[in-house]
Amino acid sequence: MSVIFAPVWIPGNLASLPVSVPFLLLILLAVIALKRRYATSIRDIPGPWLASISSLWQVYQLIKGHTEQEIVKLHRRHGSFVRIADNEVSVAHPDAVRLLLHANIAKGSWYSIFSLPDYHYVNQMSELDPQRHIRKSRNVASGYALSNIIKSEPYVDALLGLLENQFDKLIASGQPVEFDRWFNYFAFDVVGEVTFSSPFRFLETGTDIRNAIANTRALALYIAIMGHYVWLHNLTLGNPLLSRIGLQPSSHIFDTCLAAIDSRKKNPAVRPDMMERWLHVRRTYPDRMDEAEVFGAAVANIGAGADTTSATLQAFFYYMLRHPHYLQKLRQEVDEAHARGDLSHVVSYAEAAKLPYLQACIKETYRYHPATGTGLPRVVPAGGLTIGERHFTEGTLLSINPWAFHRNPELFGPDCDDFNPERWLDPERARQMDLFLIHWGAGYNQCPGRNLAHFEISKVSATIIRDFDIEQVDPKKSWRFETHFTAVPNSENTEHVPCMSALPHDLPPIRILTMYINPILPGFNPDPSIIRVGKDYFLVTSSFEYFPGAPIYHSTDLIKWTLIGHALTRLSQLQIQTPEPGGGVWATTLRYHNGVFYILAASFQRYRPQEDDRVWPRGFYVKTTDIWDSKSWSDPVYFDQVGFDQDLFWDDDGTVYLSSTYRKLERTPGANIKDFAVHIVTVDLETGSSTSEPKLIRESSSGVAEGSHIFKRGKYYYLFTAEGGTESGHCEWVSRSTTGPFGPWEVGPNNPLWRNGVEDDVQNTGHADLVEDAQGQWWAVLLGVRPVWKDGQWEESVFGRETFLAPVDWADDWPIVNGGQKIPLHSDSPYLYELSVPVAWRDDFSESELQLGWYRKNTPVVRDYSLTERPGHLRLYGGPYNLSVPACPTLFLRKQTQRFCKWETRLSFHPRNQVFEAGAVVWWTYFTYSSIGIRRGKDGQRIVRLRSPGGEVVEFGLRHSQSDVRLVIECGDSYRFGFQELGDVESDNGLVQCIGEVDNSSMTAAPPVGVAFTGMMLGLYAFGERQRCLDPADFHYAQWK
User: Fold this and answer.
1) Which of 483, 672, 759, 818 could cross-link with 487 by S-S, CB 3.0 to 4.6 Å?
2) What ranges make up the beta strands (E) of 445-578?
3) Beta bridge partners of 663
4) Which residues, including other chains, have CB under 8 Å from residue 142's CB and lie 6 or more apart?
5) Known binding site: residues?
6) 27 Cβ partners below 8 Å, 6+ apart?
7) Which cofactor does it need (predicted)?
């Protein structure tokens, strides 16, 4: 060794230095290589030898252009784990989706390459830190909500029409249609339209303006490679200096973004596009979202979104053309739907969602040709991570390649290498495969623009299939694509792209929906509580001043719910006499233990928050072993602990804990807050007696902590609380304890778990309860409201507080609700499917009992109706109370569940007294309602009388003394009241005479006493003023449609 090193250190031998340095470098490289190869916990995982010592193997595969094919081969050879870098493992084990993508763990540094246009602009995609990622996700979530995207649909339709016009011109000239080029133009223009309300004009000009798209495409290989050398990227194209001097690639797109933001600051948008949503967040929470983040979100939306959408569209048409038997079946489905009249002249997103074969073809494209060709790296957190039987140490990179995952025969069947859309037609099989479909990521790590992408793909594919006959110009040519980051066509030579010849199809244009729609229980259904027993889910909501109380719903899929009964159906169980609006039964909780179902509740007999006057109720529970039988519920067992929002928790040792909310005994000094806090005791269920002193376990700086639910998962106890009150400040918090329900409780790091603000389509969200499904996925049900944007402001929702659903993931043993994002109206969760909303309902009163879903205001103490005295009719004998008093009138109500519907009935009523009245009603509270009824006028003639919420009255005379009258209430942006006198020659023509209209804001006025915690009801009534109405009111039917 002295011979080798002597020339280096002895000045006389300096001439030998050039020869020695290479040896030294070789030795150094060899040491580094051996250290990387063997001095690691993943040294035993198989993979290419070069990959184990250097990232150059991945770079080489990227340059070749088919990383995905090599990864698939390696997993076929070596199994679930393949080493693809010195510290990175490609994972194809089924548990990886749940443990890596659904988990709140850090991304690999590769993602930071997506800070565009330079490293100052960190966006949701490029943010590596999990907590900051959640914050950024919340900031931009409202812009990506499908409900907001749909608001731009007419403008997207115009772009789709422009696309088809361009196709028509090419067809007329005999030229083929190059789908790759035109789909790129369309995808980029749509992103501009929904982001800024201004497309980039690629479609209009038919050109790539300033080579913006070409530059973006050229950057794909650079991005894929430089993701492994981020430090070098930050010195070159990621350097802010380039953007300052105007040398940034795709400057047309960046300039458009900057101009749009600048213009919007000066002139706020009329349309609530993505940019306006983000700027609203910035204006509302300036410390939470700065202008650089707004710009970064806009650029990332364009740079990462348009290319993947375009590539997926091209893949869809290519694979359909290569499998003409599937294309023929799809064409048949579309044509038949059109022939039935199911498709509008303009493509409807909702209509295309109901085409199952189309959806199966799109989903198979997602599986067979994922837009992302490289892995999705995640960093193993502290404490390590075990996938299958393999444990990985902290800091190891684990990546999931969608191509390898989607070609796992255990997950997608033995034909997983074949394009077969029909694998998705079996609902149960599709449900299982959906768990592992990661085209747009999964769970916490889903692509934020997935709703927009699916929206576009569905509309374009359906429209073109219907409007054009397509074929490949040269069927012998295969599609040549490259996977750098996205799997996109190789566009160096247009011969590589299969041009399509298109001929107009003989049918005019289709549209689509996502997998499930919120709310899952529309209409007045607040404070949901849920359990699962085997394959059955049961859910109960609050009923407040309405009877029967505690409605119980059943589902087997968390989406389609059926009302199966009520727990409080007898006077011995519930006596609600004259409560203010918002009184009665609050926040029922449903629990199941050792074969017994329990429902907990508390009933406010006095609730006057305006005067801070409340009589704190004693809570109670009822129980049964047969939840399907409403009559089987027991009489109440009352607790000796006051409060509301009761919850029961059984610990492993059998101890039963009761938590509830009431005002703290010692008020917060100097603070004008309610001081509602959660307290807990142990309880003897047989007697309802407390067996311990109450302990305060949660209070909130907002002054309201309520809706407590306690769970145990693993070694932790979890306390979920609704905080901030049930209005705009409403949110959900979580704490956990290792010692038990008495605490101490550790407050979660991501509180509130989400927060929908006053800028969102869903507001006031909170009061969550959790359930675990049979596959181990957790879900939250919660309340929210859907106000309507009207005349530049939000109009209160007529539905009141409704039940919403959101997925729950776990990271570091903390729950992450909906990926840390806001609660949306639409979700594409891979676990669930579209909700089939009923389009009509009718009760012909042909049974001996009323249908489920009819409610009385307060507990009735006398029987004032009959279904047998006149078969096929509901006969009402009006009681002595009119509709404006707090007592129980003869009033039968149903929840309004759709904004646009028509409520109607046919009434036979011949009153002999001027104070007798019967009719139909729109009901908010006894302070606010509108009724249309029949009564006797002062001159003895029968009249139709409309009463508005303010008490104003309009009267119309009827022609005949014995005619039946059809009463109609049209619900929509207002309530329109009309009638038709039946049996009359002039009016018996099917036409309804409108006699008045009431706007929705008048119908949702706040009561002077109490609070309207409920929602709009539609109903039938009869009354006499301070005397019973002796003349029966016969209703032939009631219906809405």
Assistant:
1) 483
2) 468-472, 481-483, 487-489, 500-504, 516-517, 529-533, 536-540, 546-547, 549-555, 562-568
3) 676
4) 148, 277, 281, 757, 759, 760, 761, 822
5) 447
6) none
7) heme
Is omega for the bond preceding 579 within 30 degrees of 0, making it cis? no
Partners of residue 621 on adjacent β-strands: 600, 637
Cβ–Cβ < 8 Å for 295, 258 = yes
**Nearest by Cα to 131 from 302, 377, 381:** 381
- Please report, for residues 685, 826, 1029, the alpha-carbon distance to residue 645 in angstroms, rounded to integers and kept in the order given: 17, 29, 39
Measured distance between the N- and C-terminal CA atoms of the chain, rounded to whole angstroms = 94
Residues 634, 571: contact at Cβ < 8 Å? no
Closest CA to 700 of 664, 728, 736: 664
Catalogue all structural domains in the chain, each as residue range(s) with its CATH number.
Answer: 67-489 (1.10.630.10), 526-773 (2.115.10.20), 841-1040 (2.60.120.200)
Per this entry, what is the length of the chain?
1041
Name the DSSP letter for residue 830: T
Q: Answer yes or no: are the C-beta atoms of 621 and 636 closer than 8 Å.
A: yes
Cα gap 634→165, rounded to integer Å: 68
pTM: 0.62
Instruction: For 666-696, write each residue's pLDDT tens digit.
Output: 887 776 788 899 999 999 999 999 999 999 9
CA distance 1018 to 1015: 10
| Alpha carbon distance 170, 736 (integer Å) | 64
Q: What residue type is assigned to position 560 of the chain?
A: K
**Parallel, antiparallel, or unpaired for β 529-533 and 841-843?**
unpaired
Looking at residue 1006, the DSSP 8-state letter turns out to be: P
Task: Give me the residue label for tokens 């993979």.
Answer: 47
CB 762 within 8 A of CB 786: yes
Give pLDDT, residue 574: 93
CA distance 264 to 243: 21
Q: Half-sphere exposure (CA, 13 Å, Cβ side) for 352? A: 31
Please identify every residue annotated as catalytic: 527, 706
Task: Give dist(CA 201, CA 487) in Å, integer.
Answer: 25
Please report the pLDDT score of residue 328 as a whole number.
Answer: 92
Order of strands across the sheet that contains 81-85: 81-85, 88-91, 397-400, 376-379
Helix H or strand E segment including 789? strand 788-790
Binding-site positions for heme read: 447
Looking at 407-554, list the stretches that DSSP marks H as alpha helix, in order from N- to C-terminal side. 409-412, 427-434, 450-467
Low-confidence ranges of the chain (pLDDT < 70): 1-19, 33, 115-119, 215-221, 223-224, 227, 238, 242-271, 303-305, 344-347, 443-445, 480-516, 671, 826-839, 984-990
| Contacts of 1002 by beta carbon, 8 Å cutoff, 6+ apart | 928, 948, 949, 950
